[in-house]
User: What shape does this take?
Amino acid sequence: MAIKELEEAALFERIQSSGGKAGILFFTPLCGTCMVGERMLEIAEATGVSTPLYKININYAPKLRDQWQIASVPCLVVLDGGVPLRKEYAMQSAQHLYALLR
Assistant: This one.
């Protein structure tokens, strides 16, 4: 199952309307580590995590990048009610990501 990619405006809308927990993966298309992190998130998602997951290309998300102070990619931002609770830069394992998103 692929993680849905959103543009910055659509992501803002989704965050404002959902109000619940969500995971946002900041990535760049040519980043190998980002691809591995995304694959681990897909595995975590397939095991039944109920947290919605989205991805966004950091190059096209300057407002969120600056507002949330994203330092590098990959970066998984775990939100609750639209507020960042945690930023995870080291995608350690699918099991670790599953535990973060449960």
The radius of gyration is 12 Å. The mean pLDDT is 93. DSSP finds four helices and five strands in the chain.
